[in-house]
């Protein structure tokens, strides 16, 4: 939970004039699907060839599905199957009759109270009356035996009395007291073999008092089978059963089955390592192993298999020596958590990846039998728009944490037309976050964490055509770390971030670059700032406001916020003497400075998220001191009013969820301008901008003013009437942090 969310008002005023309840008009456009990648942790095949997927997501290919979905064999979504889980799903098991067992961190499934474990009808998604006789504390793995009984690996209870493996009756969910296995630590994987024996893998060292580290075999009653002892020296995390009783195992071991094997091995029926099969060491966690014919697929979080580069995904020969398939080198840019194969040779993948190779695939993917990527079937979460750059021709460029806009790939950057539509011809595709935007004429400047834009190397900075997205081939001032802020003052570009060097020159955290040519560093501007810069704001008259995590600017003490001369970078006399951190900066026509963030105090006066200072001296204006009861993250002065965004629930005692409009003369919100945001765990308004005649807001939310809007919305600015009056009071202090 963000630090902001632990801040509360000391007291609310006893008397509040009644607030108007109608919402400020939300404009019809833009109304776009802006999404980031979801996470798929579990895959399970259905008897008819469909698949059930579980994880953390809110939609699949734009269709609302909360953490649980059923997909047809061709990757399309089963429209009728939509139970939804109110928390993460991390384990699945399906029965021969089509029932689905679900485990995770939820408290309800399909609107029915079920803590961590539930049974659903595979046909209708109806929640069964089945409930586990003992509620688990955590679940890692599920498996069904031939009688339909459910084996659960995880944790039941806590402390010395905790147990890690249980079996439950198929119909009633009663605990099977006759199942006797007692591993002494976590069970991460449970697999039922064809003959009814049970393989368990995990963190344990002993099972029922007998030494068995990482992996063990049990009979149908949970009795340890002495005939199998792999003698692992570490944890086993994944198992796949091959022909003839062969076992393929992955985990955190360097020796298993009597042979040196690093993280990956093939075992015989007694647990001994196959002396011939050895693809070589794997340098990271193995989460999933799946056999498809004579090929073994490996999913996890690694970069090498047998010394050969393989990102999180690999295929090896299941027979012979286990040769790594040199012709199959699909790279996943994030962890692979689940792998499943069909009888026809198709492959399903789930995890935390965003791309497979150069193709966008968000947490979920299907490969054809010919190893080609099938059409996208993305797992999605709400995106977060953190920057809005208005364009003179209308519309705006947006940036933030998102990968798709209205179903098309737009990695962290998109152009929204004046009509509110996504411009799908504008596709620069940075390979990581874009955190800052600036426009000069027909050029767009972007800064962030990226190292590549549309296949062209660009280290955290790039210059693009603002209409087409084409990259400027000559403007190349590389930064050695993240760029978080950009400001164009008309003739130069100011750049702030976490870098130490930029454009070949030492410029810690702050630099001035030429807008044209190669983007050369201005040799006369050197703020010598100690720390990082988060925000920049042009203050006019040759001055630049700078906020971040720093204590000095050029030797002058300035804690987190300061003002520098745009010619030299020297700190001016402006000094807010602020305690806290600043995430939003604005100025009005009189040059006064408005700050938003975790503002605790300034010049001996308590603050709560918002403040205004004289533009020359930095003296706090104690007459304009609104109190946001949670985080205030953004502030903009537009048309003579102050618009504030964040995660607050009230401003100066008036209910306002995440957005508020204030007068330049009053610390109270405008009473008729109400545009509450909502949706998601912690809805947040990150950025506010004037675009044309409307106010655009971006952030992480799914609703604005009671209407569905994903991460971006436009609102009418309204009129400046009915602000608070002198009869009202605001709190005089914030509650100290817990």
Summarize the structure.
The protein is mostly beta strands. 0% of the residues lie in helices and 43% in strands.
Could you please describe the fold and organization of this structure?
With 738 residues, this protein is an all-beta fold. Among the domains are: 1-37 and 629-738, no CATH class; 383-628, Methylamine Dehydrogenase, Chain H, CATH 2.130.10.10. Residues 1-22 have low confidence and may be disordered.
Summarize this structure as a short list of keywords or feature phrases.
single chain, 738 residues, Methylamine Dehydrogenase, Chain H, mainly beta, 0% helix, disordered N terminus, 69 strands
First and last CA, distance: 13 Å
Strand content: 35-45%
Shape: elongated
CATH architecture term of the domain at 383-628 = 7 Propeller
Estimated helix fraction = under 10%
Summed up, the helix count is: 0
Sheet having the most strands: 6 strands, antiparallel
| Secondary structure: number of strands | 69
- Give the overall average pLDDT: 93
Low-confidence stretches: 1-22
Widest beta sheet: strand line-up: 5-4-35-1-38-39
Q: Radius of gyration in whole Å, from Cα?
A: 29 Å
CATH class of the domain at 383-628: Mainly Beta
CATH superfamily of the domain at 383-628: YVTN repeat-like/Quinoprotein amine dehydrogenase
Query: What do we call the CATH topology of the domain at 383-628?
Result: Methylamine Dehydrogenase, Chain H
């Amino acid at each position: 939970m963000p630090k902001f969310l632990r801040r509360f008002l000391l007291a609310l005023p006893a008397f509040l004039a009644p607030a108007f309840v109608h919402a400020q008009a939300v404009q019809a456009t833009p109304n776009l699907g802006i999404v980031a990648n979801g996470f798929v942790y579990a895959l399970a095949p259905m008897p008819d060839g469909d698949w059930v997927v579980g994880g953390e997501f809110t939609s699949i290919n734009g269709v609302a599905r909360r953490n649980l979905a059923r997909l047809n064999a061709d990757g399309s979504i089963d429209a009728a199957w939509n139970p939804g889980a109110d928390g993460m799903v991390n384990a699945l098991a399906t029965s021969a009759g089509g029932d689905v067992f679900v485990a995770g961190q939820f408290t309800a499934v399909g609107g029915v109270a079920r803590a961590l474990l539930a049974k659903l009808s595979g046909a209708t998604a109806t929640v069964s009356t089945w409930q586990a006789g003992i509620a688990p504390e955590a679940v890692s793995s599920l498996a069904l035996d031939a009688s339909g009984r459910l084996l659960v690996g995880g944790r039941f209870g806590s402390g010395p009395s905790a147990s890690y493996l249980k079996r439950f009756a198929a119909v009633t969910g009663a605990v099977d007291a006759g199942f006797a296995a007692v591993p002494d630590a976590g069970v991460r994987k449970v697999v039922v073999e064809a003959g009814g024996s049970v393989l368990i893998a995990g963190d344990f060292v002993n099972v029922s008092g007998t030494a068995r580290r990482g992996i063990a075999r049990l009979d149908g009653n949970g009795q340890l089978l002495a005939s199998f002892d792999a003698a692992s020296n570490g944890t086993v995390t994944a198992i796949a059963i091959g022909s003839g009783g062969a076992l393929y195992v992955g985990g955190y071991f360097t020796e298993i089955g009597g042979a040196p094997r690093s993280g990956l091995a093939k075992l015989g029926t007694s647990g001994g390592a196959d002396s011939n099969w050895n693809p070589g060491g794997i340098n990271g966690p193995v989460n999933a192993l799946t056999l498809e014919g004579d090929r073994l697929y490996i999913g996890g979080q690694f970069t090498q298999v047998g010394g050969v580069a393989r990102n999180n995904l690999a295929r090896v020969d299941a027979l012979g020596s286990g040769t790594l398939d040199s012709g199959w080198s699909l790279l996943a840019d994030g962890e692979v958590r689940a792998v499943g194969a069909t009888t026809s040779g198709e492959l399903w993948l789930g995890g935390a990846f965003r791309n497979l190779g150069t193709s966008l695939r968000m947490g979920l993917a299907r490969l054809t039998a010919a190893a080609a990527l099938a059409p996208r079937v993305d797992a999605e979460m709400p995106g977060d728009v953190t920057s809005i750059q208005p364009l003179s021709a209308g519309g705006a460029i947006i940036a933030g944490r998102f990968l798709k806009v209205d179903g098309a790939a737009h990695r962290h950057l998109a152009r929204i037309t004046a009509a509110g539509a996504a411009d799908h011809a504008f596709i620069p595709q940075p390979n990581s976050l874009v955190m800052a935007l600036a426009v000069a004429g027909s050029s767009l400047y972007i800064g962030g964490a990226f190292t590549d834009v549309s296949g062209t190397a660009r280290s955290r900075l790039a210059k693009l055509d603002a209409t087409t997205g084409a990259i400027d081939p000559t403007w190349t001032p590389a930064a050695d770390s993240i760029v978080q802020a950009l400001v164009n003052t008309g003739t130069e570009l100011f750049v702030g971030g976490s870098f130490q060097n930029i454009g070949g020159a030492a410029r810690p955290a702050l630099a001035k670059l030429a807008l044209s040519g190669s983007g050369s560093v201005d040799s006369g501007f050197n703020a010598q700032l100690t720390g990082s810069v988060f925000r920049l704001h042009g203050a006019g008259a040759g001055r630049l406001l700078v906020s971040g995590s720093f204590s000095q600017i050029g030797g002058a003490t300035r804690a987190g916020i300061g003002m520098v001369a745009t010619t030299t970078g020297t700190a001016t006399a402006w000094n807010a003497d602020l305690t806290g951190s600043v995430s939003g900066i604005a100025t009005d026509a009189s040059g006064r400075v408005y700050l938003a963030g975790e503002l605790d105090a300034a010049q001996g006066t308590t603050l709560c998220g918002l403040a205004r200072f004289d533009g020359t001296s930095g003296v706090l204006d104690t007459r304009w001191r609104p109190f946001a009861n949670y985080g205030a993250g953004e502030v903009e002065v537009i048309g003579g009013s102050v618009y504030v965004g964040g995660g607050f629930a009230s401003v100066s005692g008036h209910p306002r969820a995440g957005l508020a409009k204030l007068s330049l003369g009053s610390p109270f919100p405008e009473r008729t301008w109400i545009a509450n945001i909502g949706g998601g765990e912690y809805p947040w308004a990150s950025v506010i901008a004037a675009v044309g005649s409307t106010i655009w807001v971006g952030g992480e939310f799914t609703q604005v003013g009671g209407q569905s809007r994903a991460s971006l919305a436009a609102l009418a600015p309204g009129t400046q009437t009915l602000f608070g009056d002198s009869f009202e009071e605001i709190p005089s202090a914030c509650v100290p942090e817990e």
